[in-house]
Write a structure and sequence with these properties.
Elements (H helix, E strand, L loop, with lengths): L17 E2 L2 E4 L2 E5 L5 E7 L10 E11 H4 L3 E7 L2 E9 L2 E5 L4 E4 L4 E5 L4 E7 L5 E10 L10 E5 L4 E3 L2 E7 L1 E5 L6 E4 L8 E8 L4 E5 L5 E8 L2 E3 L2 E3 L4 E4 L5 E6 L4 E8 L7 E3 L2 E3 L2 H14 L38
Antiparallel strand pairs: 1-2, 2-23, 3-4, 4-5, 5-12, 6-11, 7-10, 7-12, 8-9, 8-11, 10-13, 14-15, 15-18, 16-17, 16-19, 18-25, 19-24, 20-23, 20-25, 21-22, 21-24, 26-27
Length: 335
């Protein structure tokens, strides 16, 4: 997914609360396109928190009636220095990229695209989709991997299940504690370049589960819908609860409504990144060059360059998205 904000260097944040033991990040609404566009709810990045592990971007959207909003219609756009992770709850999206990968994103299946040195892709909800509901996440690549060749991976995890709960681990590994018997463990085969966790959690009303965490990682829990307590704290719908490193396990308890949530985590990146529009780099000059190369490749500025950083794309596809205008101030990196 592209960041379609007209001024992506600015972050407008809500009033976030500090609960006992967790930091609560509020969402902000961002329209994907024109006046009838589908809105997404963005919880990462924010001014006070740019990263959770290497996770640097989190949008979730829907349930969205495609007939009213037009669904997802994001033409070809570029990425550098990151991995995109698509996870759907309802609907279907068609993915196409300049590395030659063409795939469908479906509920319960993770699609991970590694941009590396540069890639371009498009995402459109399919004609059969009537309701679209899901999440788009980005992971910043560490310095030793961010110039790699672009690639793509797909995986359908086998869910862990119990009485009133289902957990699907799409990145990394996770253990659900079982006080009455054997713990349940799941691991994803998808390659990442830092240690990461990504999992969908569904709880029926009144259900409680305890999840073992890597205590060296930091974590975030996004409540998409329902009534959820994280240990002693209530996490409101659409909010992202941040847990610092040092947390060995959490207990998740559903109240009177069923819960749908995403649990993410990872080892702290310990690198400064610079993120503007769809580019992750390290310096202002890098991002300026990424933008120049993209505008040149799509013919929006000057003569087409000889080397195509963002690859070739089928000519029968909709026109590519031009990059926004750079701000008049120097871009600053984030921790």
């Amino acid at each position: 997914m592209s960041n379609l904000e007209a001024a992506p260097d600015e972050l407008v944040c809500g009033a976030d609360a500090q609960c006992a033991g967790i930091e609560l990040l509020s969402p902000r609404n961002v329209p994907l396109g024109g006046p009838r566009a589908m809105d997404v709810r963005r919880t990462l990045p924010q001014k006070q928190r740019s990263l959770i592990g290497a996770w640097c971007f989190l949008d979730h959207y829907g349930p969205d009636p495609v007939g009213d909003s037009g669904g997802m219609a994001v033409p070809r756009h570029p990425h550098t220095g990151l991995q995109t992770i698509s996870w759907l709850f309802t609907g279907e999206i068609e993915h196409r990229d300049s590395a030659g990968f063409h795939a469908m994103v479906r509920p319960g299946e993770v699609n991970l695209m590694t941009a590396g040195r540069g890639i371009s892709h498009s995402e459109f909800s399919t004609p059969e989709t009537t309701v679209l509901h899901g999440a788009q996440l980005w992971v910043a690549l560490p310095d030793d991997a961010r110039h790699m060749e672009p690639t793509f991976a797909h995986h359908r995890p086998e869910p862990l299940t119990g009485s009133g709960w289902v957990v699907s681990v799409f990145l990394g590994h996770l253990t659900v504690r079982n006080p009455a018997g054997l713990d349940q463990f799941s691991a994803s085969p998808i390659k990442t370049h830092t240690e990461l966790l990504g999992a969908e959690v569904r709880l029926e009303p009144g259900t409680s589960i305890t999840v073992a965490l890597n205590a060296h990682h930091e974590h975030g829990l996004l409540v998409d819908s329902g009534d959820l307590n994280l240990d002693a704290d209530h996490v409101p719908v659409d909010h992202l609860a941040y847990l610092p490193a040092g947390t060995p396990e959490i207990t998740l308890t559903a109240g009177t409504e069923p819960v749908l949530a995403l649990l993410i985590g990872g080892e702290p990146l310990n690198e400064q990144i610079l993120m503007w529009w769809n580019f992750v780099g390290r310096t202002h000059e890098e991002v300026v060059e990424y933008r120049r190369a993209w505008q040149s490749e799509i013919g929006a500025e000057g003569t087409l360059s000889g080397t195509r950083r963002f690859g070739d794309f089928p000519t029968d596809q909709p026109a590519a998205l031009p990059a926004p205008v750079l701000p008049s101030v120097r871009l600053r990196p984030r921790d």
